[in-house]
Every structure is written in structure tokens, then in C-alpha cells.
Amino acid sequence: MTEKFKIHGGESLKGEVSIGGAKNSVLKLLAAAILVKGSTKIYNVPHLTDVDIMLNVLSDLGAVCNYNKEEKSVVIDASDITSITAKYELVSKMRASFIILGALMSRCREAIVALPGGCAIGERRVDFHIKGLEALGAKIKIENGYVHAKASKLVGTDIYLDIPSVGATENLMLASVLAEGSTRIQNAAQEPEIIDLANFLNTMGADIQGAGTSEIVINGVKADCLHETEYTTIPDRIEAGTFMAAVVATKGKAIIKNVYPAHLTFFNDKLIKMGASIKLVEPTTIEVSARSRLSSINFVTQPYPGFPTDLQAIAMTLLTTSNGVGIITESLYENRFMQVPDLRRMGADIHQDRNHAIVKGVKNLTGATVAASDLRAGAALVIAGLMANGETIVEKLHHIDRGYEEFEHKLQNMGAKITRYNEEDISGMPSMNSAILNTKGGI
Predict the structure, then answer these.
(1) 133 neighbors 102 (Cβ within 8 angstroms)
(2) What is the pLDDT of residues 235-256, one digit of tens each?
(3) Residue 299 burial (CB < 10 Å; 0-12/13-18/19+)?
(4) Do 190 and 164 form a contact (C-beta atoms < 8 A)?
(5) How far is the CA of 201 from the CAs of 37, 188, 227, 336, in angstroms?
(6) pLDDT digits (tens, 9 = 90+) for 107-120
(7) DSSP characters for 145-206?
(8) Which one of 138, 141, 243, 320 is at 20 to 30 Å from 263 when CA atoms are compared?
């Protein structure tokens, strides 16, 4: 079934929106749940395609997974792990599922995991994952598209990451929980999702210190020290940034709930410099608004706490109609300007030179038919459609559904004229003023 968004731009977003659980965190928590020989309950789990894939990965390994859509919680019973193989058909759909490698090595001392897939935003190699596991004592070979890892035992050691890779940091944390002795990860990633994983593991009996800094120490514990637990996922900072940008882009004013402002310090600072207003209403609630044309800025994507690469495409959309010229430098992925051709179709003035994009603000964008090339580029095109004059059609929604829960419904509740429809049922397409509750099938 081919689904598309139909957007009629020009409406200022108003009202309020509540941010869901962090996709980039909950996927790792789900994988970590298999370390416990028992049940784990995780709250604030968003209803997303990527969550569906990860639960399928776990089920294929023998875990029993039950998702409660109303409660937005998952119970995972990993009492019996009957397989050590994470199949290509699942892992190839989502890169984050590669995190199961570290979890399986910790629980079973053996894993066969397909090389990962996901958004085509550039080369994201797994060398650091492999080298780190080898340093812990694993014997690894790669053949036929699978990583085969095995160890009679894992022994703690010092591991230095050449770059602060989020995935490698998480995989090595998981692999070290039950290792003998202590493991020290230097130049570790510092993202909030790393802290969330460490906190989750600690609630089940692990001993992890330093998460959120460049040096993480994992003191190995015995398997029987791990126990059942309940845990609530942190809010999704990228979803929060997306809705903040959407409000600012449409010169709106809205309350955004269930957000940790400290996780978006750098992004918030850039929005304020562009002319947006951001006010703290409560510790986890902010008011965002913009009254006039934004001013252009320059920024460079960097590992946390710098400007998030996941918000680069969305920020570029803001620059397309800002006053002046803004320069974006993408320092993390070589292929993350995939939204540029479609923004140009909508009238944007963007010159791209390798990992630099020079964006000259134009007066208005105009509606066009565009296609999501990856998750964040897709969200950026939706925001561009909300900004544009006329009608915009956004295709390939499966990318957007990977990371945004009920995206169009949340936007509709804020006054956006956006509907989802099936290409095969164009004759029955609803009017722009109707709100379709086209909720996806249960996870």
C-alpha cells in the first residue's frame, strides 16, 4: 500500500503537543532486556515501525514480547533465549537492531547477527563495535553478510574509540555488563540515550558509572545479580526539536510537553538566534513561538552536546525562507543532504559543496510533490510543506513512520492541514479539513 501526505501550507501551528518516548533510546532498552532471565517492563514506548522491528528481532530469539498500545508499555520475558541468530530479514531493515550483538554476547557468549541496514544517510561502519568486542575476548569473523562472534568468557579491559560512536558505545556497554572485571570505554558517546541505557541497566543490577561523560566504566557483575525491573524511557529530543521547528517555521505559538530542555541546549540556542522565543513553563514543558521572518545562521553538526545531525535537515528547512544566507556543515555523515533536491523543487536556493550547504533565504516556498529519502529528511519535507504556498504531496511515508508516532494527527491537533491517504484510493481522498485517524496496526 502506497501512502502519502497531502499538505495545504500556510497555517500557523497553535495549541499543544506531547512528545513521546525516545526512539533512539527505547530500541536499545528493548535489546538490553534480554540480559535478564525474567520479565522487564518498559514504559513510554512509542508506537513506531522501528519498535515493531526490534520486537520482532527479540521474538525471533525466543523472548516473549507484549506491547500495550493504550499504556504505551512493553513487557519482555527473556526467560528463554532459544536462538543466537538475528536474521538479515529483520536487521537489514533497521541499523539500531545491530545492538543485539552486544546483548547476545553478554547473555549467551555467542551471537550471529546480520550486518545492519537503515536510512541511506552515509557509511556507518561497525569496525569500532568489532574491535571493542575483540578486546573483550570475543573471536569474530564476518562472512555471508553476518557477524559471527563467540567467547568462552569476556574479560574487562580498556577500550578507546577513535570516534565517539553511539552504537559502538552501547554495544560495548551491553557486552561488558557480565564480563569479568572492569571495562573502561574512553572517548565514549555522551548522548542522553547513553545515560538512559546505563540507568536502565543499573536498575536491573548492573554497575555502570560515568555515562554521559567521555569515559564510562562498567564493573562486571554475575548473571544472577541481574533482576526483573520496570523503567520509563526518556522523551524523544529529536521529536521535540522537530515540533519546535514546525511551530517556528509556521510563525506559530505552541506548548510542547514531555520534553527535557537540557537535551536540546545547542539546538534551542540556534533557534533563539534565528528569532524564535523559547520559554520554560514547567521543568518538562516549554512554550515556543516566532512572530516574524527568521534570521539565517551557520551551524556544524557535531556529536552531543553539539548540534544534532538528526535535526540538520529540519534546520535547513527553516533556513530556506530565513533572511540572509546560512551555511550548514555536516561533519558526521557524508550523504545527509538528501533533502536538498526536493527542497529545491519547492523553490529553495541551496548550493551544495560536498559536506557544506549554502542556503540563501527566499521569500516563500511553493508546494510540490516530494519524497522522503530517509526519516529526518522526510520530517523536514513535511515542515517545508507546512511552510509552503499551495499544496504539497509527500511520498514514501514508511521512512517517517519509522520515527514519528502519529505524526499527522499531532500536527492536525495543532491546526495543520495535513492528511494521509492511499494512492490506490485517490477517488476517496478526504478533504483537507478532515482529521483521519489512520492508526497503524498494533505492534
Answers:
(1) yes
(2) 999 999 999 999 999 999 999 9
(3) buried
(4) yes
(5) 14, 17, 10, 32
(6) 999 999 998 754 44
(7) TEEEEE-S--B--EEE-SS--HHHHHHHHHHHTTSBSEEEEES----HHHHHHHHHHHHTT-
(8) 320
pLDDT at residue 425 in the model: 63
Predicted pLDDT at 336:
82
| C-alpha–C-alpha distance, residues 198 and 175, integer Å | 12
Could you give the domains of the chain?
A: 3-20+235-428 (3.65.10.10), 23-232 (3.65.10.10)
Name the catalytic one among 65, 108, 119, 225.
Answer: 119
Mean pLDDT of all residues in 52-72: 96
| Residue of 77, 20, 18 lying closest to 50 (CA atoms) | 20
Q: Which residues pair with 325 in a beta bridge?
A: 360
Question: Is 119 tagged catalytic?
Answer: yes
C-alpha 25/C-alpha 229 separation (Å) is 17
Contact between residue 387 and residue 9 where contact means Cβ atoms under 8 Å apart = yes
C-alpha cell at 57: 528481532
